[in-house]
Amino acid sequence: MEGPAKAVLGSVAAVAVAVVVAFAGASGGVSRGGVPVVLWATAVAFAVNWVVFVPSWLTRTERYYDLTGTLSYLTVMLLAIVMVGRYDPRSLLLTGLVAVWTTRLGTFLFRRIRKAGSDSRFERILTDPAQLFMTWTLQGLWVSLTLAAALAAVTSTTEEPLAWWWLAGAALWTVGFVLESVADLQKSRFRADDSNRGDFITSGVWAWSRHPNYLGEIMLWTGVALIALPALQGWQFVTLISPLFVFVLLRYISGIPLLERSARRRWGDDPRWLAYQRNTPMLLPRRPRPDPVADGGATG
Fold first, then answer.
1. What is the rounded CA–CA span in Å between residue 47 and residue 50?
2. Is 11 helix (H, G, I), strand (E, B) or coil?
3. Is 61 helix (H, G, I), strand (E, B) or coil?
4. Contact at 8 Å (CB) between 212 and 284?
5. What confidence tens digit (pLDDT) does each residue in 10-47 have?
6. How far is the C-alpha of 31 from the C-alpha of 64, rounded, in Å?
7. CB burial readout 90-111, b (16+ within 10 A) else e
8. Mean of per-residue pLDDT scores for the chain
9. Does residue 97 contact residue 173 with C-beta atoms inside 8 Å?
10. Which of 16, 31, 214, 249 is the most exposed place for a label (fewest CB within 10 A)?
């Protein structure tokens, strides 16, 4: 199968997966206009990205990709809570946590791409409309699946008190959010130092894990799922796929594998990199191990 056909198939598959999970999340949920609110929200997640795809293709730019992701998250959550019209503590908490996370990450990524001038992920697809459309479609899938548990809880007809679940979930979210934020800040400061040009970071939280930012993201979405859990019923439990989806995507598909391959190309013969790779776990943190060979530098 040729590239364009595979891209079209990928886009169709992404929408199909999102729709299946949305129907599961809509089970026992609130409807408006005869359509479950979760389906409305999922449609908007894709629509926002498809609308911005048009100027992205016409101007051959990926500059607003991450900001569009932020807009998608905010729009979807606000749409869901307003359409349901129930501003209970769980719904407000979930909406607030998503808003804080996506605003922080979206602005960070936008500033990074403005400084870099381009995003290497898009180098080979900006001139291929099918591939570019699939990339924007996959962002719609990312938004809808990561929000699946939160959307199911916000739109659920089951109103359960927060109880202790919210404390466990909020604590996990907080640790994950702080870890991701600190990791991003430390790497940004490392790269801003001209003396580190072309090098890799091994200090701070990057001494404990080669991908601490991804670990933080997995943790915070697991926290969101824990907060949502008591409000779920029946088929809505399928939406607990959210943190699993984040883990699988980052660990095995588009996150860590890409960065690890890039790191091997750049530093694969560097003894310091080999020592860092040997002594620092890929994801789950571990106390740094001293190595006389390692003297500096993390993937990125």
1. 5
2. helix
3. coil
4. no
5. 899 999 999 999 999 999 889 999 999 999 999 999 99
6. 32
7. bbebbbebbeebbeebbebbbe
8. 89
9. yes
10. 16
Backbone angles phi, psi at 119, to 5 degrees: -115, 120
Report how far residue 177's alpha carbon sits from residue 180's, in angstroms, rounded to the nearest whole number: 5
Spacing of C-alpha 85 from chain mean position: 27
**Alpha-carbon span 108 to 298, nearest angstrom:** 19
Examine residue 23 and state whether it is found in any structural domain, yes or no. yes
In one-letter notation, the amino acid at residue 131 is: Q
Q: Annotate 133-183 with DSSP letters as a single string.
A: HHHHHHHHHHHHHHTHHHHHHHHBS-----TTHHHHHHHHHHHHHHHHHHH
Closest CA to 286 of 223, 178, 205: 205
Sign of CA dihedral 64, 65, 71, 74: negative
Domain residues for the domain of 138 are 3-279
Number of domains observed in the structure of the chain = 1
The one-character DSSP state at 293 is S
DSSP assignment of 185-232 = HHHHHHHHSGGGTT----SGGGGT-S-HHHHHHHHHHHHHHHHHGGG-
**Could you tell me if residue 290 is inside a domain?**
no
Task: Find all residues with CB under 8 Å of 166, minimum gap 6, and list them.
Answer: 89, 90, 93, 226, 227
Asked if the structure places residue 99 within a domain, the reply is yes
Burial (Cβ within 10 Å: 0-12, 13-18, ≥19) of residue 35: exposed
pLDDT digits (tens, 9 = 90+) for 226-271: 999 999 999 999 999 999 999 999 999 888 998 898 899 888 888 9
Q: Is residue 284 part of a domain?
A: no
Residues paired with residue 156 on neighbouring β-strands, in sequence order? 29
Contact 38, 27 (CB under 8 A): no
